[in-house]
Amino acid sequence: MSREGAWLVACAPMARGTFIALEGLDGSGTSTQAEMLFEALTGRGHTVVTTHEPSRGSIGQRARAMLGGGDGQVDPHLLALLFAADRLDHIAREVEPALARGEIVVCDRYVMSSWAYQSLDCDAQWVETINARAPWPDATFLLRVGAEEATRRVHARTPESQREIFETEAIQRRVEASYEAALARGLPGVVAIDGTRSIADVSEALLQACDALGL
Ligand code: ADP
Ligand code: TYD
Fold it and tell me: CA distances (Å), 27 to each of 67, 152, 158, 168, in order?
């Protein structure tokens, strides 16, 4: 390469990374698939960051503590505001810097979780408004698993005393309907994945969806 060509490459702006959100019911497999996606995309030569919401930051930890239900009655509006505030904090601290470095960010839960869960007890339009400043991801992969199967998995994974406030089949049925409504909106980058198949098959389907993103 000529000296001039090398200078142009050195000065070219870094290509922005790709922001992928994984969504689904509790027990749908988002944590399992986030790890598998990390391995597979790293194997393809990408630099990948896996993260989750609620985040590890102080606001996220506060939201997580409320999910345990140990503080007594949970105020659903306060919880919705905590998730939304944690999201902006998370974006600023972790997500945006990684995207600016050109990396892939795989986020276990994001805006659609707030739409699906917080709209059960709060006005859906209000939930959307408090999350409106969070950037929309390049891709949102929704792992579709019915409430019965997802709850069966959660109950097998977590003893009753350690389950969080949304981890009942009755609530998951309502969350499932909320996710289906979100899916029906046909928003950009939202892809439904059959999450009832084997872990390996779901991973393969996610990788095919990543192919479509050019990853
Ligand atoms: P989430 O993070 O969505 O709550 P996890 O990834 O923690 O879900 O998975 C919940 C449980 O279900 C775990 O025990 C996991 O091993 C199991 N699991 C995940 N994906 C599948 C799958 N495709 N088929 C069967 N079991 C699964
Ligand atoms: P998570 O740890 O991902 O649960 P799981 O591994 O069982 O899927 O998320 C914790 C809980 O927080 C889960 O029940 C969904 C809920 N949640 C919301 O209600 N709103 C949100 O915005 C987020 C990010 C999570």
Answer: 15, 8, 10, 11
* CA 10–ligand 2 middle distance (angstroms): 42
- Please indicate whether residue 134, judged by its CB atom, sits closer than 6 Å to ligand 2: no
Name the closest-CA residue to atom 14, ligand 1: 157
Separation of CA 92 and ligand 2 centre (Å): 20
Tens of pLDDT along 28-52? Answer: 999 999 999 999 999 999 999 999 9
The per-residue pLDDT for range 141-166, each reduced to its tens digit, is: 999 999 999 999 999 999 999 999 99
Question: Is ligand 1 within 6 A of the CB of residue 60?
Answer: no
Query: 158: Cβ below 6 Å to ligand 1?
Result: no
Q: Which of 71, 60, 41 is nearest to 213 (CA)?
A: 41
Q: Answer whether 115's CB lies under 8 Å from 185's CB.
A: no
pTM for this prediction: 0.95
Q: Which H or E element spans position 136? A: none
What would the DSSP string read from start to end of 149-206? HHHHHHHHHS-GGG--TT-SHHHHHHHHHHHHHHHHT--TTEEEEETTS-HHHHHHHH
Does residue 202's CB lie within 6 angstroms of at least one atom of ligand 1?
Answer: yes
